[in-house]
Design brief:
Elements lengths: L1 H6 L5 H22 L8 H27 L3 H8 L2 H13 L4 H19 L2 H10 L3 H8 L11 H5 L2 H22 L5 H23 L9 H28 L2 H6 L4 H12 L6 H18 L1 H15 L7
Length: 317
């Protein structure tokens, strides 16, 4: 996130998204070929990979880079890495994965945290002043900011934080889709193809709408692009979706909750970014929520063990 934010002033978002995906997909397929992994052979496999490419490739990367234009790398990483909360809900609905009391508590805290990070501050302060009845909330959405400018859907779509939330939703759906993709294709091969198929429409749109995206790139920008492609996309995508296909999707997804910690640290050190008080509160709540969702089974077991020890007549260990 920090590297991409550094590069963006010298290029365009769709070009950056396409450049991350296309070479990374090619590298992943080369590794898959060296490992002699099987290529997709059925039309069902290609259909699932194509859907995976649309949602997690084109939509996720496009929304991510577009959102990063108008938001910081640190807060963007927090919003993107809140996607385990959506994964937990989708996994519960589609696969019957248990969430439990601590998981539901984590989801509730996560919604509050994401709201503090991603919604316009004027909305939050207005809701705080008016309370939370539905009528007041709807009036706030149709009302005015502190500066007097209307808060409409167009302004929301221009919000980098809101685009980041949409990107997180796309990645969440992509993570769930891997559960279906792996039934028809090798996860690593599917990951490589989804990056190539998802990068092609981004490259086409960049060619049509973004003139001269490489004219202002410096040597450091090309090094950053290489890093973002190899380490930030090819290596991490391959590992993530391999684990998502072969492990618990909710827990695997939540393992990335340390990413925003590093992003906030490095964005402050190298980019001079800072957060508002509301955003810091949202960051703390979001990290707590992802931890609760990830560690819900361990917390449940620990609480059950503690309750057993405290109950009358419990046998000593």
């Amino acid at each position: 996130m920090v590297v991409m934010k550094y590069i963006l002033p010298h290029t365009s978002p769709l070009f950056l998204a396409a450049f991350r995906l296309l070479p990374a997909g090619l590298l992943t397929l080369i590794v898959a070929a060296l490992l002699k992994l099987p290529q997709p052979k059925t039309w069902k496999a290609w259909l699932w990979i194509a859907l995976f490419a649309l949602v997690d490739g084109a939509m996720f990367q496009g929304l991510l880079t577009a959102g990063l234009v108008n938001t910081g790398a640190g807060i963007g990483a927090v919003l993107i890495d809140a996607q385990p909360l959506v994964v937990a809900l989708l996994a519960r609905i589609l696969f019957g994965s248990l969430i439990g009391l601590w998981g539901w508590l984590g989801l509730a805290i996560g919604i509050a945290g994401i709201s503090l990070c991603g919604l316009p501050a004027a909305w939050i302060y207005s809701l705080w002043e008016k309370g939370i009845p539905l009528q007041s909330w709807l009036q706030t959405l149709q009302g005015y900011s502190a500066e007097g400018s209307a808060l409409d859907l167009a302004s929301l779509l221009q919000s980098g934080e809101f685009l980041m939330l949409l990107a997180a939703l796309s990645m969440s759906v992509g993570t769930i889709l891997m559960g279906y993709v792996k039934r028809h294709a090798d996860p690593i091969v599917a990951t490589g193809w989804h990056m190539i198929l998802g990068g092609i429409p981004l490259a086409v749109m960049s060619g049509l709408w973004e003139p001269y995206p490489i004219d202002n790139l410096l040597l450091g920008d090309w090094v950053g692009l290489l890093y973002a492609t190899v380490f930030g996309t090819a290596l991490t995508y391959g590992m993530f979706f391999y684990l998502a296909a072969n492990g618990n999707m909710t827990s695997v997804s939540a393992l990335i909750f340390l990413t925003p910690v590093f992003a906030l640290l490095f964005s402050g050190l190298f980019l001079g970014e800072s957060l508002t008080a509301l955003q810091w509160g949202g960051v703390v709540l979001t990290l707590i929520s992802v931890y609760l969702v990830n560690q819900r089974e361990q917390i449940e077991a620990a609480m059950a063990n503690l309750s057993q020890k405290l109950s009358p007549g419990a046998a000593p260990d």
